[in-house]
Design goal:
The complex is a heterodimer of chains A (78) and B (141). Chain A has 78 residues and is an alpha+beta fold. Helices cover 23% and strands 22% of the residues of chain A. In chain A, strands 2-1-5-3-4 form a five-stranded mixed sheet. In chain A, strand 3 and strand 4 form a beta hairpin. Chain B has one domain: Alpha-Beta Complex (Aldehyde Oxidoreductase, domain 3), CATH 3.90.1170. Chain B is built from three helices and nine strands, in the order E-H-E-E-E-H-E-E-E-H-E-E. In chain B, strands 3, 4, 6, 8 and 9 form a five-stranded antiparallel sheet that branches. In chain B, strands 1-5-7-2 form a four-stranded mixed sheet, with helices on both faces. Classes of the chains: A alpha+beta (78), B alpha+beta (141). At the A-B interface, helix 1 of A face strand 4, helix 2, helix 3 and strand 8 of B.
Chain lengths: 78, 141
């Protein structure tokens, strides 16, 4: 699955998107765990949300092939 | 309702007139305009400029939802929300919100609601550039 990265997430990962394959990630919660395990610097952030198809997702939400997935670090508009 | 809401996220300089003119309406006597600009100091640090980044399609959706909520909650007529992305220098405009309503009170309330919700929900990120270094606002404790 393809995951879009923004702001400080993009800096930590070093790319505006990552491709994750063969990791058996089926839910938002599993994706968050994978991100924090693979990039421990995420543990220093105030929060980290996941958006699925351009909406904030709950941890229990399932992920499907073809979903548009994004990492949403703490926002700061305005 | 969507034809009463104008959302723009732009890499170009924002126009106060453009934002304001959209919400002008024959039925309205109260027009509230909020303009957020870049200031030179935050928590004692001198700032040289800001850079904004956004997940644009999601931000447009979120801002449209916030606009709809403000119309429902406060019964205002039209709402315009314009946000800049990219580099913005001191005194530059980062965000403009314009709201029109029959009377002033609802326009003030809706405008405040929109900027508060924008700050907490819209997928927009701000990097502050200091004389020494830079950091993403709100990212770390």
């Amino acid at each position: 699955m393809k995951v879009l990265c923004f702001g400080i997430a993009k800096e930590i990962i070093g790319s505006s998107e990552i491709q994750i394959g063969g990791e058996h990630i089926n839910t938002v919660s599993e994706l968050k765990s994978w991100i924090h395990h693979t990039y421990p610097e995420f543990n220093s952030l105030n929060s980290c949300m996941i958006a699925v198809n351009q909406e904030y997702a709950e941890d229990s939400q399932s992920l499907s092939n073809g979903d548009e997935i994004a990492i949403i670090p703490p926002v700061a508009g305005g | 309702m969507d034809n009463h809401i104008d959302i723009q996220i732009s890499p170009n300089e924002l126009s106060v007139d453009g934002c304001y003119n959209y919400t002008l309406d024959n039925t309205c006597g109260g027009n509230n305009l909020f303009v957020g600009t870049v200031r030179n100091n935050n928590k004692g640090e001198d700032i040289t400029h800001l850079e904004f980044e956004s997940y644009v399609p999601m931000a447009i959706k979120v801002l449209k939802t916030i606009g709809q909520e403000s119309i429902q909650k406060f019964n205002v007529q039209k709402v315009s929300i314009h946000h800049r992305i990219g580099r913005v220098d001191l005194k530059g405009i980062a965000v403009i919100i314009s709201v029109s309503s029959k009377h002033r009170k609802e326009a003030f309330q809706a405008c405040e609601y929109i900027i508060d919700e924008l700050k907490s929900r819209a997928p927009i990120w701000k990097k502050e550039f200091l004389k020494k270094g830079s950091y993403w606002v709100n990212a770390r404790p």
